[in-house]
Amino acid sequence: MQEVIQTNVSRHHDNVLQVVQSYYQLTKPRIILLLLITTAAGMWLAAKGEVDPLLLLVTLTGGALASGSANTINCLYDRDIDYIMERTRWRPLPSGRVKPVDALIFAIALAIASFTLLTVFANLLTALLALSGIVFYVLIYTHWLKRHSVQNIVIGGAAGAIPPLVGWAAVTGDLSWSAWLLFAIIFLWTPPHFWALAMMIRDEYKEVGVPMLPVIEGDEITAQQIWIYSLILVPSTLLLVYPLHTSGFVYAAIALILGGIFLQKAWQLLQSPSERNTARSLFKYSILYLMLLCAGMVVDSLPVTQNMVMAVSESLPLGFL
């Protein structure tokens, strides 16, 4: 397969900018952006709305480097099936624009840079958490689960849930119950998100032999599982308000509104599991949901928000309260 890729689809770079672009694409930047948003949310919650700008920059940079390393190795490992699947054939490795050995060196360099940066400017726990994310994503998900287990996304979702732990540890140097709840929220969000995508491109996964739930169990079972995870996810987001008291009223309102829409879309999919557009709608919204939920955490944690809520509560009649 690799000989076919290299001889028939090989392309050459015309300038340095194209080389940089190819290596940039290996890191899957769109995925990194979402991971960094969850990292930032963890930092703001841990710092109670007052994050040190330098620490924020260092942590997000280190997290981006770690995620880029993991994604590059994922591209390296999956280059055979990426060549077969229409939506991934353009990627740098299956297209022949980057050699496998160069991609491996690039991934190792990113991992070393991430670990060094986070150890020096944050703390060792933060660096180890970022490194564990790389190891889990590469060895547990990509190597072991993705091609061999229908639970690949469920268990593998732990890798994507590590970034908020990285953010929290960077600020506090430890991990509290609130940090682990952030981990749980991302962990529960992952199956509905990826299974909705898998329902959209089920035939492609089937062609390359990846045992995604829609391929093995069908759309109806997948929609049922998405509904179950959604029912657990939405109430879980409110645990930050009570009993943990990490977030307040503003976040609670945002989480309820966003969660209500999430449940509505999951219910629509449950009613029409064969509708690709319904699955696409849930998939796209799941991304927006996580971004806005994290934004809600950040806004709620800001001192100005806390002061406004306190001022409003004090101005209300006691009878109303």
TrEMBL record:
Pathway: Porphyrin-containing compound metabolism; heme O biosynthesis; heme O from protoheme: step 1/1. It is an enzyme of class 2 (transferase). One of its GO terms (biological process) is heme O biosynthetic process. The chain crosses the membrane at residues 31-47, 53-77, 98-118, 124-141, 153-171, 177-197, 226-244, 250-270, 282-299. It comes from the Bacteria. One of its GO terms (cellular component) is plasma membrane. Carbon 2 of the heme B porphyrin ring is defined according to the Fischer nomenclature. Converts heme B (protoheme IX) to heme O by substitution of the vinyl group on carbon 2 of heme B porphyrin ring with a hydroxyethyl farnesyl side group. This is Protoheme IX farnesyltransferase. It comes from Planktothrix tepida PCC 9214.
